[in-house]
Design a protein that fits this description.
The termini are far apart. The protein has four helices and no strands. It is elongated and about 65 Å long. By secondary structure, it is mainly alpha-helical.
Length: 137
């Protein structure tokens, strides 16, 4: 395989196997267990729900950290393909990815430069992470 195919496979694996799969797992995390055959008092149900939520909290926290680390790896993998001059030119050594072509009166992001692409990628997966937490069952 040539370098581009290897890079594509690596990035796709990170995206599909580690990010998307983990986000889907997060959405399927149960926050409440309703027994089908057993009757429960409200206190018993509350205790069961608290225990379920405590377990879910740990699982969701770890999965969220895993998504964050995978997104960082995805971006670092793409950044590693740039030459040193290219990365200095676009300012990718800075953590917050400042826009190189701010537009308009309020100097908003151009949405076209490489910094904006990385910034938008981080924002997108941050939002997806939050959505997965909200969608828990």
């Amino acid at each position: 395989m040539n370098e581009l195919e290897v890079l594509n496979k690596h990035v796709s694996d990170i995206l599909e196997c580690r990010i998307e799969a983990t986000l889907l797992e997060m959405e399927r995390t149960a926050l409440c267990e309703v027994p089908e055959n057993d009757t429960m008092t409200p206190k018993e149900f509350l205790k069961l729900t608290e225990q379920t939520c405590a377990r879910a909290f740990e699982t969701l926290k770890n999965q969220s950290l895993k998504v964050e680390a995978s997104v960082d790896e995805l971006i670092n993998t793409l950044k590693a393909q740039l030459t040193w001059d290219e990365s200095l030119k676009v300012g990718l050594n800075e953590e917050h990815y400042p826009c190189k072509n701010p537009e308009g009166k309020h100097k908003t992001r151009c949405q076209e430069c490489l910094c904006c692409s990385f910034y938008n990628t981080l924002n997108t997966f941050s939002q997806r992470n939050t959505e997965s937490l909200i969608k828990c069952e």
